[in-house]
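re the bet — no i am not wrong, look at it urself. input seq straight from the record:
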Amino acid sequence: MDSCRFDSFTAARTPNIDRIGQAEKRFSYASWTAPAHYAFTMGMLPHQNPRHVFASEVYKEEFGLWTLRTGAEGLSFRDFLPEISLPKVLGGLGYRTIAKVSMPVINQATNIAQHFDDYKLMDHHNNFSGMVEEIDFAPGEPGYYFLNLGETHYPYMLSGKNLPHISGVHGVLKGLGSDSADSSEDAAFFDPEQMRELHDQQIRCVEYLDSKIGELMEKSPPNTYFIVTADHGELFGEDGFFGHGPIMHTKCFEVPFVEGFLA
């Protein structure tokens, strides 16, 4: 769930995701989409932030958990070398690896798309329903499906709202080619009421995604292992910040994490 911060997730009603397990507060390795997703494709998921533990122990445990998730005995960090690529490791285990993403910054031309058998950027960033429709589980063939969901990313599926447009990386790149002497955004910063409205809308988007995850669960083989998390958090006015990216703030790194088989 792109940009979904932990407290947005816990404030939402998620009866389908609750069937997987209890949500934990974890911490992203990065504060924006591209580097956070690079960590995912390495096989590293949001961490628990343990104290008095060497980082190497955390990494060793994280890579070792893919033994539990896949049922492949003895899987370790050594199996990920030299590419350190989860889709490549899973491909070697006989998995078909499929990714469907919402954010253009992780499109199929980026390094993140390496080693996937099928990698697709959806036609717009609020199209998880399209992903669910497209997914067709092949009987008897193990599959790894990596889904980046944009509904929880700004503007949180808002329509008809009188809010300023805030560009992401692609908007900035387009502006660099402009002949205008000043291509910077001139929109006023969100006021507190707008911030509350945006946060509330992200919560509603989590609930919408949960309903679609329920549809995906109905299609899934009975032994499917689910992981639901976020790439990073989001700021809604705390300490004068909005959004994510070049921001160092706890709320930008707090994410939900749920994993397991269906109850």
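see?? Residues 192-219 form the longest helix (28 residues). told u. also The longest strand covers residues 254-261. so pay up
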